[in-house]
Amino acid sequence: MNGVEEVIARSRQPGTFVERRTFSVARDRAIAKLRKFALASPYDYILELIQAAVANGAHYVDLELRGSRMGLTYVGGGFAPNELGQLFDFLFASREDLETADVRQLALGLNALFQFEPDEVVLESGDGTAKGTTRVRITGADTVEVGRPEAPLRGTYVVARGLSGGLPGTSVPRRGELAAIESRCLAAPVPIVVNSEPLFGYAKARTPKLFGYRQWVPFDEGDLYGAVGLGWTADDRVFHLLTWGVLIESVRAEPFPGLRLGGIVCFDRLHKTVDHAAIVRDERLDEMFARLRPYAQMLRDGRAAATYDLRLPDGPPLGPRELREIARRVRTLVVVPASTCAGGPPLERARQIGRALDAPVLLAGPADADAVRLVAGPGTRVVEPCVGDDTDLTFYRQPPAEPPAPPWLVAPVRGEPLDAKRLADVLQADGVLPPAQPAGADARDQFLRELGGRCEVRATLFVPERPPHPGGLAVELVSADRRVALLPIESRFTGGLLRVEVESASPRALLRVWPGTTDTTLGALVAYAVVRLSTPALEAAERRVVAGLERSATAAGTTGSRAALGALARAGLLRLRTDADGFVAPRFSLFDPQLPAALLDLPLVRTLDGRECSARDLEEILEATGGVLYGVVPEVPADLRGLDRSRILDLDPQQERLLLALVGEASYVRVDARDVLAESAGLRVRDFALGLRAWPDFPLLVEGADPAALPPERRRLVEHELVRRLQRLFAAGPTEELRRQAARHLLWYLRRRRSAGPDEGVVEVDRLPLFLDVDGVPRSLDDLRDLLAGPGVPMHDGWSTDPADLGPLADAVGRPLGAPEGPRPPFRGLAMNPFARHVLSRLGRVTPVLDFDLTDAEARADGRPPETAYVVRVDIAADFATGTLGLPVAEVAEPAVAVVDEQRRLLGVLREAVREDGVVGALRLTAGDVPAERIAGLARHGVALLFAEVLRRLPGMAADDPQRLRCLRAALRWADRRTLFVARPDGSVALDIRDPLAERILDLPVFPTSGGLPATARRLLGEHAAACVGMLPDSARTRLDPSTPAPLRAWLDEACAAARVVRPAAARLVPPPELDPTSNPRRLAGWIADLLASLGAVEGRSHPLVVEFGRGGEDRWNAGRDRRFDELVLGCLPVATREGPRQLLVLDSSHRFVRRLLADPRGDREALAWVLLACFGRLNEVLAAVSDEDELAFQQRVLDLLETPAQMP
To answer: Which end of the chain is more exposed for a tag (fewer CB within 10 A), N or C?
Structure first.
């Protein structure tokens, strides 16, 4: 008996363990991976197992595929005990690691095999010794036994018993797996025997023969092997691409123009798509074609050997093995064009650069320069200098520039490689890329040409204690460890050094000024793009720095303190809150939950008298100065005579810039020479300085002469003259700062004069647009008068702003704002402005828009219970936003979600998606312009996640915990809104619960009854429905126990009082009689869309549905009945229509189910069901993941619809 036969015989024995351990594998992770990793066909699991065997070193693969049994056996290779002991962890192993590729393929294959629900899976692998043999047995859904079998084994086998899709105990071949092997394993490098039949013979060949080609050449480089050949026609330009001996995709390509090249290529490093049915078009495919180039040139030129157009100076052309051997031995390669280095000075410069870098010099032809980088791999640095003059030679002769030495505030962070195209995309999207020269040329193409289309850069972030650019972020461009340039970058990320390796671009090119500009270099453009793309790493490093400061002492002005101020400027804003005494004041808050709350207590800046100030100290200064912070910078002389230095911040330009980013320009005044804004009769109105000195009794803040010395009439005239001059300055001042200074004085004038009583002279100031609302519309005191006297003027959170941001407002001065040019949007509240709040609070009420805690830190900060913001909370994330939603500890009168747009420094309020559920929270946008519908959809999805978490947490809450009742009532109200009372044809009324989570909530036994057993809400509502139509006498209804909590009684009363009996779904199962699908398929499409909506296919996660019919390609048409049902949906995407945004589903009219439905929409119920299920599956794939319960609930609703007699044709 040979080796394979012994292993086969062993696989057919029951087998036992000598020693074992049993555990429950993390099947939730495996199942999650399985849902994402959906093979193109469920039978393709066998291909994954064959690839595992080939990768593991199998010499021969034997398969048994009969009935409900699958057996795979081979000799050669083998798996280590520790690999099999943690098999499913390899589902998440890197695909770049070829050392673990065999185990990963085995895990993927077994994970996919579970779709067939085997009764038992047994795997044994060994090296012929008892110690080296391992047995794994998997039973049920998640029980795994791992141990040593009773006898050693040399070889490997996998057996699955009880597979679905086959008849147990029969010898009928499993045709699904057999078809997959026959179509995809023809070129496998080892023999494959299935059910004792060799499918492709017993020959073992890694380099197959090519038939039908003019000439061909085999090759074997280890991980790359196969054969390529020159064909007769253009149709021969097809590459059959394999990994581990299994065909993945046949690619029609022309990587070598002019050559009709094709063949069979196995390259194990290729990246596959998620379903493993195609090859990803990426750098791995480019590498494969680069390594095939020598064989293409060999065939084209009739060479005796395969070589690149590459050589060492005075050496022969290099072949693939020689090039890879050179790259393996050195860290750096110098590559120069062979056309410019035939000899003379250029070649000598290249040699000297090679000596300076201790690197060999390669002379490359124009077609093979890029091949060096691809073949050498990421571990080899490729330098491509310019050797036309001595510039680059001088650069590379300088000594290496070492990175910053420790101590560091955080460990260095090395980023992923960034290719030139990504850099160009960022520059183009941000509008930073200068115009190309000559005019009309493409700037992006010019950037790629200058930098090198194949160029990759890699950034490493350092945060040293002594940074090279304390006032911001420094970017160091290096090539071959030599510094090209050190560029200071204005950024809120302070104290860091981003060291950017740009290897392939010539240093001379990086320092060259972009044509048509005076100082913009290619290097500066690279630095900008790298900083933009490194934002996540910069944020992460910033959080780590601040977390470190939380545990150690720091001082204002140090690198750590600047990092803290930068973090606060990036992730902080002003919120208007009501304290325990009912006083409304601005407070700083953090909208990045990963930053510690202690950040608000760290010293950030100093006052002129030397006192260190934290964010909490700045709040006190804001209150003392009426909502304005004052500061000085060394570069601008300041007139400080008579001013309180304890309230003026001593800043440098970077601190001032960060402070402006934190509070907004309307809440900061730089104390300088203090311009005179208006003057009359010796009274001067200078730059605003409220809270910095004592002021005379006068409606304006004036300096100079004493206004008390003026006669009353003269004093009144001077007052009006000063006001008029400030009005003119506010309306048409030459700078934004002058307009803002005038606006502050006029606001103060409103406060003083209005509080003193009526005055005809102030009437026109009442009409000035001195306030800015949240929509950017200027508003006057007249606009706000009714609100001030009534419920109060709402003010939003955010960053301080005022009308001076809008530019000169000459046309608005003296003009009633009630008659603007065009309608103004409804007033939704004022934008954040602490000084405007200070003024208005003396004239009436100002109310915060979001006057509730958004974080636990805010809850602890006000000193009042509770100390937590939420009873239950969840974190949510999407590709455009992250955030937190929660059920607040105390009910909120106006629930809302704060939506923070950090890039544009805007804060929006989302109410409709959460108002009825009593949910609050905050979302942070991470992308640019995000449609409001997507934000609302994410919030609704987050609310559902929140109540799922509530349901999970309820069993752990004490019965007498008030928060338990709070959670119960909120969850019941959420479920009630997803429940309908539906009249049936027989006159009864049934509950239609349209959400699986709502069903689980309504099935909670939480209502105490007089009978002793608690009742569910579903039972109580069902009894109410039956009683409504006289089908249940009142005496038979469940009686609640007197101990039933009042909140539960109140909910039940509300739910029953609000109940409405509705008729069945608006969409009919049978289309209208006048609908002719042949002549009017558009109406049939509309009927399908209505039917999907009525069945709850989207449940608020999408725009309204639109269905259209399209036609797939010819290959889809020819696929006929073998095509999967879910392929009938060609596309699912959002579209814009005249009626607003819609979600478009395109159905393939050539698919058999769609064709049947088009032919008989009134009678083919099977086709209708498959179309509905396919649409539901694609919608969930595109919009959001759903649970198994969601899918089953939709299927049940489809079944109910099909079986309802009243709906039958």
So the answer is: N
Q: Which residue has the tokens 């510039």?
A: 391
Residue 301 has what pLDDT?
78
Q: Dihedral of CA 504/507/508/512: which sign? A: positive
DSSP 971-1038: HHHHHHTTEEEEE-TTS-EEEEE--HHHHHHHT-EEE-BTTSS-EEHHHHHHHHHHHHTTSS-GGGSP
CB-based contacts of 449: which residues, under 8 Å, 6+ apart?
Answer: none
Q: Is the pLDDT assigned to residue 989 strictly greater than 80?
A: no
**Beta carbons within 8 Å of 914's beta carbon, 6+ residues apart:** 885, 895, 896, 897, 920, 921, 939, 943
Give φ, ψ of 575 to 5 degrees.
Answer: -120, 140
User: How would residue 523 be classed by pLDDT, with cut points 50, 70 and 90?
Assistant: very high
- CA distances 865 to 577, 850, 859, 868, Å, are 15, 18, 8, 8
Task: Return the percentage of the chain with pLDDT > 70, whole number.
Answer: 88
Separation between Cα atoms, residue 368 and residue 366, nearest integer Å: 6
**Residues with Cβ < 8 Å from 828, sequence gap 6 or more?**
773, 774, 775, 794
Residue-wise over 1001-1020: b if at least 16 C-beta within 10 A, else e?
Answer: bbebebbbbeeeeebbbbbb
Q: Token digits for 625?
A: 């100065």
Instruction: Evaluate the CA torsion angle 98, 104, 109, 115 in order and state its sign.
Output: negative
What would the pLDDT profile of 446-466 be if each residue is shown by its tens digit? Answer: 898 888 777 889 999 998 888
Q: What is the pLDDT of residues 1142-1190, one digit of tens each?
A: 788 889 888 888 888 888 887 788 888 889 989 888 888 777 656 666 7
Residue pair 575/622 in contact (Cβ under 8 Å)? The answer is no
The number of residues in the chain equals 1209
Q: Cβ(1110)–Cβ(1073) under 8 Å?
A: no
Between helix 369-376 and helix 283-301 the angle, nearest 10°, is 130
**DSSP bridge partners of 870:** 888
* Range in 8-12, 176-180, 236-240, 526-530 with the lowest mean pLDDT: 8-12
Of 139 and 695, the one with more pLDDT: 695
DSSP 762: G
Structure tokens, 540: 């992460």
For range 44-59, the mean pLDDT: 94
- DSSP label at residue 20: E
Q: How does DSSP assign 1161-1193, residue by residue? A: TTT-HHHHHHHHHHHHHHHHHHH----HHHHHH
Mean pLDDT, the chain, as a whole number? 84
Q: What is the pLDDT of residues 936-972, one digit of tens each?
A: 889 999 999 999 999 999 988 988 888 999 999 999 9
**Predicted confidence (pLDDT) at residue 65 exceeds the cutoff of 80:** yes
CA distance 829 to 211: 77
Asked if 78 and 56 touch (Cβ cutoff 8 Å), the reply is yes
**Sequence-ordered strand ranges (E) for 878-999:** 881-888, 897-901, 906-910, 920-925, 979-983, 989-993
And the tokens for 664? 């907004």
Q: Which of residues 897 and 1104 earns the better pLDDT score?
A: 897
Instruction: Give mean pLDDT, residues 279-284.
Output: 87
d(CA 463, CA 407): 9
Alpha carbons 907 and 923: distance in angstroms, whole number:
10
CA 662, CA 667: separation in Å to the nearest integer? 10
Distance from the Cα of residue 989 to its chain's centroid: 45
Question: Which residue in this structure is represented by tokens 């240093």?
Answer: 507
E strand segments, 801-896:
846-848, 870-877, 881-888
Give the tokens for residue 989: 């009324």
